[in-house]
Write a structure and sequence with these properties.
CATH class: Alpha Beta
Order of helices and strands: EEEEHHEHH
Structural class: alpha+beta
Helix content: 25-40%
Distance between the termini: 73 Å
Oligomer: single chain
Strand content: 15-25%
CATH architecture: 2-Layer Sandwich
Radius of gyration: 18 Å
Number of helices: 4
Shape: elongated
Length: 128
């Protein structure tokens, strides 16, 4: 099997994934997943598509992660892994889609407006 690559995004985070045949190693920015994401919850989020298909120890995954916070990065990586798995085996798409792993979360940060402290917050109104 050749190397399959895919891209995942969430908020400001971008994950480029390279999946190859292997023993289940996940390397993020040249660091192990346990070092990069110390939180077991985020590790679980990243591995969800692999666990759903039962192929967690079948592929080695190399990742370039950039931008965003750790939650956005974990979800971007989950999308990228799901897309790569579908490239490898298109029959898995329906299983991953039903779990919501194939959908790009479109929510972005709303821009700050002039004359306001934040995007929607307003300064205190005074009648007199």
């Amino acid at each position: 099997m050749e190397v399959v690559n895919a891209l995942g995004r969430r908020k400001a985070a971008v994950a480029r994934v390279f999946v190859s045949e292997g023993k289940g190693q996940i390397t993020i920015n040249k660091a192990d997943i346990n070092v990069y994401f110390p939180s077991s919850i985020l590790q679980y989020v990243v591995k969800q598509p692999l666990n759903k298909l039962g192929v967690a120890d079948k592929y080695d995954i190399k990742v370039n992660l950039d931008g965003g916070g750790f939650k956005g990065q974990a979800e971007a990586l989950r999308l990228a892994i799901a897309r790569a798995l579908v490239k490898i085996n298109p029959e898995d798409k329906s299983a991953l889609k039903s779990e919501g792993f194939m959908t790009r979360d479109p929510r972005e940060v709303e821009r700050k407006k002039p004359g306001r402290p934040k995007a929607r917050k307003r300064f205190q109104f005074s009648k007199r």
